[in-house]
Please model this.
Amino acid sequence: METRSLIIEATAGLLAQSPSGDVSTRAVCEAAGVQQPVLYRLFGDKDGLLAATVDHVWDQYLAGKRAAEKSEDPLQDLRAGWDSHTAFALAHPNAYKLMFAPALRSVPEAAEEALRILREVLERLAAQGRLRVTPEVAANMVMTANTGVALALVTRPTLYPDPGLSVLVRDAIHQAILLEPRAGTTAGDVRAAAAATLLSSLDELTPQPFTSAESALLGQWLAQIPASGSSA
Model:
């Protein structure tokens, strides 16, 4: 194992066992069998080491998400994603708390990837006309709520002793962002809802991947979909 990976593995092990959620660079170097100058050369400082370690631990969690097959129903994937997020927090409380610790100057890359994977699921729901808000807004709502309840469970377990709280918050957030299917809903209704969702996020597509003119033209096309759907 290369030295960098050896140090990260040692840090992850010590972090998981730490009652305080902190580790010392001295203990890490002893566990990895390296001198402190080596650690600082590779990671810059303790902050850089912890950020790399959090990415390593989270990468194991995200690897499962990357490899997971998409179900036919993106709502099922959305629910499973929330539940796996909470389960990860409970299994790795110290690494989870570090991910969102304001004192950690280096933002772990895993946070951005987790949000990107969530957006992909929500974009599938938007394409089916099942979102009340844009995928971007929905992703921020879901991630902040999921993070909030997970942090509550791992930082204040005596105050929030019931893990079932996560499911209650999950269902409340999903109800806020999702459109409930109604009896008599037609394919035209679904297309119209999907078009409305895309229309509401056109500004996010300018100047990339569309120019202002292209975005305006797309907006004109999308605006015609509800009308054509109602006349079908």
The mean pLDDT is 84. Residues 58 and 110 are 6 Å apart (CA to CA). The chain is about 70% helix and 0% strand. The domain at 3-180 is CATH 1.10.357.10 (Tetracycline Repressor; domain 2).
